[in-house]
Specification:
alpha/beta, about 375 residues, 2 domains
Length: about 375
């Protein structure tokens, strides 16, 4: 006999990491267990120990790069019988969409993240997948053609990411001298993937210009990605390799953040950057590129600083402003923290997903 609780099977490659992975874990740990039963189908089950009791994990690893795992996923769906399948990232769209059709699942939900235009065959294929989904949910309304049209067609809903404000407030700062950093010098933190569209090279150029002005800065890069070697080569050519530390993936970024002087996020485009809100909650000043995903949440010179993503001199001026105006910076940090308290709580995110999932089932039947 079918339970009255809504059964949701979430698809994501892994729960280790930031962004969508962190948001899914927040949601699973905040949802009402009297109303929902959750399971996760993933390719890597690392870092699942802190999930809420009762969340079942199905690990289906890939055997090779383009292994869609349809047979194994189909068996998983047939055995668990969800009411809703929710895919969280593009690499799980087609592997989960096809088996859900053949399993007769009432509703398939796809999460839209960081899409702006079709410029590759892969993007076109993923756009078709969104068209074939029942509903779409996004953490940001920033999107262009054709995704904006698909989003409207599928009655898409924007649900902002949640921030664990209480947890961040309780965390103790990390002693960054353990990373070999001289904490007597200003430390700039970048936390995120080391990929080209994150525009980290403009940050390296800014550090080089500051060095020329006699301002010694340490740049701490927390993250991994396919652009890491390029960034190391750029830092070497600029003569700042001794000022740049590549720390790799860290699961204690917020603790590290609390020991840094500022966070800089210079991306050309973003969806909804969690790290900015974590910095705001931690009381750390934020400098971000002036793009839609950032200026929606940051008011220039009130809750943070914005700069033109192609202008490293503009970034340098903002960095110097934070270093030279500590009292004004402190006021900005307090204003930033106040600005997100009521908008991005985990409770509000869970309540919004509760309503969304119920609406999905109503429209599916």
């Amino acid at each position: 006999m079918k339970t009255s609780k809504i059964r949701i099977l979430h698809f994501i490659y892994a729960l280790k990491g930031g962004g969508a992975e962190k948001q899914l874990k927040y949601l699973l740990n905040t949802m009402d267990p009297d109303r929902f039963v959750n399971a996760v189908c993933c390719g890597n089950s690392e870092e699942t120990d802190d999930l809420a009791t009762g969340v079942e994990i199905f690990e289906i690893p890939r055997k090779f790069r383009f292994d869609l795992r349809w047979r194994q996923i189909f068996k998983c769906i047939k055995s668990w019988r969800p009411d809703i399948i929710h895919n969280w990232l593009p690499n799980g769209l087609w592997p989960s969409l096809i088996p859900s059709w053949f399993s007769g699942i009432p509703c398939y939900v796809a999460s839209y993240r960081n899409y702006y235009k079709i410029n590759r065959l892969q993007d076109a294929i993923e756009a078709v997948g969104f068209c074939l989904s029942n509903r779409i949910v996004s953490n940001s309304g920033a999107m262009g053609f054709p995704y904006k049209n698909i989003f409207a067609l599928k009655k898409g809903v924007v649900i902002p990411n949640g921030v664990d404000l209480a947890h961040i407030g309780c965390l103790k700062s990390f002693d960054i001298s353990r990373l070999g950093i001289d904490n007597q010098k200003p430390v700039i933190l970048y936390a995120g993937r080391l990929v080209e569209h994150k525009n980290i090279q403009v940050l390296l150029n800014a550090v080089s210009l500051l060095k020329d002005e006699g301002i010694a800065i340490t740049l701490l890069l927390c993250g991994t990605g396919n652009y890491s070697n390029n960034l190391q080569q750029i830092s070497h050519k600029l003569g700042i390799k001794n000022q740049v530390l590549f720390a790799g993936y860290r699961d204690d970024v917020v603790r590290i953040m609390k020991s840094c002087d500022m966070l800089v996020l210079p991306s050309f485009y973003e969806g909804m950057p969690n790290v900015i809100f974590e910095a705001m909650a931690a009381g750390i000043p934020v400098i971000a590129s002036d793009i839609k995903a950032h200026n929606k949440w940051i008011t220039h010179k009130k809750t943070g600083l914005l700069f033109c993503p192609n202008d490293h001199q503009d970034l340098v001026d903002n960095i110097k402003q934070i270093l030279n105006e500590p009292e004004t910076t402190k006021e900005k940090c307090l204003a930033a923290a106040r600005s997100i308290v009521n908008k991005l709580s985990l409770t509000k995110m869970a309540e919004t997903y509760d309503f969304f999932y119920n609406d999905c089932l109503k429209t599916a039947h």
